[in-house]
Structures are given as structure tokens and as C-alpha cells.
């Protein structure tokens, strides 16, 4: 690593949508010491519009809701850009037979507060018109309550993947800033604070 002139203590992992799912899974597996190969420690993670639970393993997420009828799986069932039906199709492409609700590789959002304690600082970008909205907000809440420094930004009224839209939206700049500032925030060595969602 020294030959590459980079600091292994400043590795940040991140992704958007399915990429954020992979990043969250890898970070959690690394934290739980389930990665077989030696890796540098992860300084933080940036998870933008993440999927955090396989669609067939979503019951633990629903149980965290005060009322299932207002869950994002219900209120955003036909959301533009990503409906629940499309989410099911994308998830089916993983070809996982009988997904296990306790398999944290595919369900990092189903981890317990005890399992996430001590995880690295986490930035979450969440959009309002997205079936995945609640699992991201619930994950951020659990992380914060477990003592993990967490920075959560919510883009109200915008659908999954809006940043890829051809027409320029005013929220593009905020999206880019959440990522850019999030990396700086992680590297600043933030402390945990109460769960808060920026809108």
C-alpha cells in the first residue's frame, strides 16, 4: 500500500442504489470480521438511495414501523423510476433461492443494534418517492442510536435515481454536495449525535 502512496486509514466505501447495497453489506461483514482476506479498515461509508434488505426479507423492517400502511413499500408501491414491482424484478436477478431474513450479506438493514455498534461513520442519501426510503431511514436511526456517527439527508418528493435524469434539477447540486461533504465529514472524525434527518 505504501508503494501506491495512499493512506489505508482513510478508505471510504460507497455506492448508489444496488452499489450502496454492496457497500453496506461489505462494510457490515468487514465490521463483523466475516471477511476472510485481510483488508484495510473502513473509515466510513456513503450510502446513496440504498437497498438494505432483500425484498423477500423485509418483515423486520415492517415491524419497526408504527403503522405498516404508511411504509414506503405501500405509499410508493407505484413510484416513478422504481416501483415495488420493478424492485422485485431487479432483486430476482440475484437468483437467490429462499433468501434468509438473517443473512446479513443480503440484508445489512436487518442487523441488530448490537451488531452495528462500533461501525464507521455513515452518510445516507434518501429520497422520498422511493420504496427503499424507510429501510434507509430506519438503518440511519439504528446506527445513530447504537452510537455510530450518522449523517442523513432526505430529498423530499424525488424518486429513486432522480440524479440520472437528463433534465437538470435544482436538487442535483444538493445531491452532489451530500456526497462531497459526506466524505469530508467522515474524514474529520465525527462524533455520534442524536438521529437527525436533513431536508
Automatic annotation (TrEMBL):
InterPro entries tied to this protein: AB_hydrolase_3, AB_hydrolase_fold, GDXG_lipolytic_enzyme
Keyword Nucleus set for record: no
Domain Alpha/beta hydrolase fold-3 residues, every copy: 6-162
Coiled-coil residues: none
GO molecular function: hydrolase activity
Top-level taxon: Eukaryota
Gene3D superfamilies: alpha/beta hydrolase
Keywords: Hydrolase
Record has Hydrolase as a keyword: yes
Protein name per its UniProtKB record: Alpha/beta hydrolase fold-3 domain-containing protein
Organism, scientific name: Fusarium oxysporum f. sp. pisi HDV247
Record lineage: Eukaryota, Fungi, Dikarya, Ascomycota, Pezizomycotina
Amino acid at each position: 500500500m505504501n508503494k501506491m502512496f495512499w493512506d489505508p486509514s482513510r478508505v471510504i466505501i460507497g455506492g448508489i442504489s444496488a452499489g450502496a447495497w454492496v457497500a453496506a453489506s461489505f462494510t457490515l461483514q468487514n465490521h463483523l470480521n466475516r471477511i476472510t482476506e485481510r483488508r484495510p479498515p473502513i473509515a466510513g461509508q456513503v450510502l446513496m438511495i440504498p437497498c438494505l434488505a432483500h425484498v423477500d426479507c423485509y418483515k423486520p423492517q415492517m415491524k419497526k414501523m408504527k403503522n405498516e400502511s404508511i411504509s414506503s413499500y405501500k405509499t410508493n408501491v407505484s413510484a416513478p423510476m422504481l416501483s415495488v414491482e420493478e424492485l422485485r424484478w431487479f432483486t430476482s436477478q440475484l437468483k437467490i433461492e429462499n433468501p434468509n431474513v438473517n443473512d446479513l450479506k443480503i440484508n445489512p438493514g436487518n442487523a441488530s443494534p448490537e451488531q452495528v455498534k462500533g461501525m464507521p461513520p455513515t452518510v445516507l442519501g434518501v429520497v422520498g418517492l422511493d420504496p427503499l426510503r424507510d429501510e434507509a431511514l430506519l438503518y440511519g436511526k439504528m446506527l445513530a442510536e447504537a452510537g455510530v456517527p450518522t449523517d442523513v439527508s432526505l430529498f423530499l418528493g424525488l424518486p429513486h435515481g432522480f440524479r440520472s435524469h437528463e433534465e437538470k434539477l435544482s436538487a442535483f447540486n444538493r445531491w452532489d454536495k451530500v456526497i462531497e461533504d459526506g466524505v469530508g465529514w467522515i474524514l474529520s472524525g465525527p462524533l455520534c449525535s442524536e438521529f437527525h434527518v436533513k431536508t
